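Hello, quick one for you while I still have it in my head. My current little project is about how a certain protein chain folds up. You're getting the sequence in one-letter code plus the fold written as tokens. Would you mind checking whether the tokens look sensible for this chain? Here's the protein in full, and shout if anything looks odd to you:
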Amino acid sequence: MSWEFFLVTLITIGVAFGGLMGTIAYLILVERRLAAFIQDRYGPNRVGWAGLLQPIADGAKFLLKEDVIPGYVNKTLYILGPSIAVFTAMAGFAIVPFGPVDQAPSWMRFVIAPDVNIGMIYIFCVGSLGVYGVILGGWASNNKYSSLGSMRASAQVVSYEIPLGMSIIGVVLMTSSLSLNDILMHQANQGVLGWNVWTQPLALLIFFVSALAETNRLPFDLSECEQELVGGFHTEYSSMKFALYFLGEYAHIITVCFLTAILFFGGWQFPLIAEADSAYLGATLVKVVVLLTKVLMIILLIMFIRWTIPRFRFDQLMNLAWLGLIPMAAMNILVVMTAKQFDWPIWTLPLGSLAIFVAAGLIGTSGKFVVSDQTVDFSESPEGYVHVHS
């Protein structure tokens, strides 16, 4: 490794880390203002003009607040939990391109770790480790609400890792690569009609729903729901340790939004102004702005969902993963593999997605699904169980 490569890597890490921290601080402000708008009330608007200095005040409050560690916790694991949560969220961002990688200036790159040809596998591996921070924090708190929250988080993450991983297999098959930059360039070279959202709409839906569950966002925040578990796994946390969990959650959301934009919406590609062969003065900056705009739109969508859709019950959460998303993801893979094998036209893929979605809806609304001599009854008992009859 040359000194130049090392120096450029350090600068890129600094830019990415500083950008993430600043973005997270102001995303919290945006979400609070958005929640206030939806609930017809004033949001934070007193610190600075229109409340723009509120994130700085919040950060200072976290730093200056008394660092309380309850006497009945396992101190080592109690402190280690939030550290793991924020570290894994940050590490996942290392291979995410935040601009046109091939057109980066000489003094920095638009991705921290370039040329990682197993990028998708790396992200799923590192991202799935984040749940250990939640489990350790919940268990080490020595509190029944924290323990219940951490157990819910582990079951939720394990369940939704499956459809999340299966949803992108179709994209990988179409691109023949696990590299995020290759997937982005595959779409950019074909123009706007080459975006995977047109050929893989069902995969996008499964990926987005699973990602919401992975990040513990409403309507899937069962591991920290206030009405049932006080605060869930972070009930005993305060000051900077609580802030680290918050940082980890928002960093995870930003990573997921970058992935959604890159995997399904062409990344930085946009008709006329940001094409693959655009080389006019300022084209690189335009491409970065286009990508960040797409990411911001997806973040705002996630925020709207949080403040509009009510929380699922835990049995509904599990049923959605195991009886809905996983079968649909498996069928979607089958359709893509068949289309690739027999060279079917590209328009057959969205038709296949639509057929799978409609079939799943009919099965779900009819309440029953018959396989051989067994009937799976989706109509819920008072306990929320799904019954299987022979």
The mean pLDDT is 84. The beta strands are 368-371, 374-377, 387-389. The longest helix spans residues 3-38. DSSP finds 14 helices and three strands in the chain.
